[in-house]
Amino acid sequence: MPTLSERDAAVLWHPYTQMQTAPLPIAITRGEGSWLVAEDGTRYLDAISSWWVNLHGHAHPHIAARVSEQLRTLEHVLFAGFTHPAAVELAEQLLEILPDNQARAFYSDNGSTAVEVALKMVLQYFHNQGQPERRTFICFQNSYHGDTFGAMAVSSRGAFTEPFWPLLFDVEFIDVPVPGREAEVLAQLDQLLRKPQVAGFIFEPLVLGTAGMVMYEPDVLSEMLRRCHAAGVLAIADEVMTGFGRTGPLFASSLLAEQPDLMCFSKGLTGGTLAMGLTTCAAPIYNAFLSDDKMRALFHGHSYTANPVACAAALASLELTRAAECTQQRQRIAAAHAAFKAEIEDQPGIRAVRHRGTILAVEYDPGEGTSYFSRLRDAFYQLALDNHVVLRPLGNVVYLLPPYCTTDAELALLYAVLRRMRELVLDFVPAPNLPHILHD
């Protein structure tokens, strides 16, 4: 009989994968806490929360029970002209803990669609206000907001989007205001804000994930938002990755003195249980769509908008996330990351170490530029698997973003793997002329 991996190879097409050269995928049959268990019984420590979605561990009994209960009550109902308890309760609870200016919630299916909704809200807001010429977005270099067309357009141009460049709308890119470059980036922003066609500024708050976990500070982002608001430009916080405690507080935007006008969520929204996206907005944006004229409505929706089962998973995950135990778990992981950063950051083979909350990124120095296509990537990936750890290196940048239930002993295993990667780097012979791009 063929294995599950062999059956997969006969019928499936995987994301971000060159299927002709890729090895057979590892078949995972169950999960337990921070661990994934393969068909052959091998256990793998999930150091990246399965693409940043899992908050509380795999197959969490509390979330599973709530999902099961919802399935026996109502599995789905159309959300145009109808509603249901879980959708209302989730919106109420989220708006209670989001920044005070967030007033309305719009459900969708994933992070990309949450961003698409926000972009459409901004563009139609100005259209409804009689300013249809305002349709330009400002974005960070090396940003990533999703793989649908609008989300690709406001993401950095690179090898993964090159076939679609002619179809993407134009945006204005500015540099990331990393420490030491704040004044320079503020000047770039000021220059663009003088253009009357600018509508919105979309950003990953404090951490650019696929750029290699590039980090910047709340003060400069708050100042950027103040300048946007002074120019009448709307600000979109893409918290798809940073939301629900990854950066320390429940939301990275909570650290800002000036708040975004719209916010996007997915990934940890349901604790990694079911697909769901969410876009929230301030009251003035919602109010701009209210009219006796039906053509001023937001004509956007998805078949599974506000799916009751996904809402039930999100409510259960949010209950766990808001508990004191989860806060303590995040603080414990953050403290362990900080200690490891202090240990390794000045050692040979290390270019930089970045840390915020439960996110840790080590940028190794292979004697060449930082690149997603670094030959180290595959070596790092295999080294991790050989040590029963799931990592997804961004070229020569390796990050940890573990579930909050990850124990100190499990963290110690992850740090040991990162130390072994440094040893591998010291023996690495660089190759010239690699493209400098990060994406995942």
TrEMBL record:
The modification N6-(pyridoxal phosphate)lysine is found at K267. Belongs to the class-III pyridoxal-phosphate-dependent aminotransferase family. BioA subfamily. It catalyses: (8S)-8-amino-7-oxononanoate + S-adenosyl-L-methionine = S-adenosyl-4-methylsulfanyl-2-oxobutanoate + (7R,8S)-7,8-diammoniononanoate. Pathway: Cofactor biosynthesis; biotin biosynthesis; 7,8-diaminononanoate from 8-amino-7-oxononanoate (SAM route): step 1/1. It comes from the Bacteria. Substrate binds at W51, Y144, K267, G301, R392. Homodimer. GO terms for cellular component: cytoplasm. It is found in: Cytoplasm. It comes from Hymenobacter actinosclerus. Pyridoxal 5'-phosphate binds at G111, S112, D238, H302, S303. Catalyzes the transfer of the alpha-amino group from S-adenosyl-L-methionine (SAM) to 7-keto-8-aminopelargonic acid (KAPA) to form 7,8-diaminopelargonic acid (DAPA). It is the only aminotransferase known to utilize SAM as an amino donor. Gene3D superfamilies: Aspartate Aminotransferase, domain 1, Type I PLP-dependent aspartate aminotransferase-like (Major domain). InterPro entries: Aminotrans_3, BioA, PyrdxlP-dep_Trfase, PyrdxlP-dep_Trfase_major, PyrdxlP-dep_Trfase_small. GO terms for molecular function: 2 iron, 2 sulfur cluster binding; adenosylmethionine-8-amino-7-oxononanoate transaminase activity; dethiobiotin synthase activity; pyridoxal phosphate binding. The record marks Y16 as: Participates in the substrate recognition with KAPA and in a stacking interaction with the adenine ring of SAM. GO terms for biological process: biotin biosynthetic process. Its cofactor is pyridoxal 5'-phosphate. This is Adenosylmethionine-8-amino-7-oxononanoate aminotransferase. Keywords: Aminotransferase, Biotin biosynthesis, Cytoplasm, Pyridoxal phosphate, S-adenosyl-L-methionine, Transferase. CDD domains: OAT_like. Its EC number is 2.6.1.62. The lineage of its organism: Bacteria, Pseudomonadati, Bacteroidota, Cytophagia, Cytophagales.
